[in-house]
Amino acid sequence: MADLNNLVEELSKLTVLEAADLVKQLEEKWGVTAAAPVAVAAAAGGAAAGAAPAAEAKDTFDVILASVPADKKIAVIKAVREVKAGLGLAEAKALVEGAPKPVLEGAPKAEADAAKKKLEEAGGKVEVK
Fold it and tell me: Which residues form the domain of 7?
């Protein structure tokens, strides 16, 4: 039981992005999808009256960079590169200068919220849809 408590403590120290990465890695390692039980539960509950809104709950979000003040452009470019892994400097600059543009598409809620927070802290105006 002590090992489980230690594991809970260690997992509690993860940031939202680290937790999302952990989920992805576990899904790949075990060959499962964390969203599957939610979809099955929503489909099963959809037969009951009043459960239709729960079945339509949105589980992926788009993070859209709406605008960037000129004096915050460099900070937002850096934040975009942190949020969107593998993006080069030229691509990040083009994305920021072409705002409004999507930074992340189809991201889980936690990842979308973390990206929005990071981009807003850098000075950008962000929409999550």
Answer: 2-55
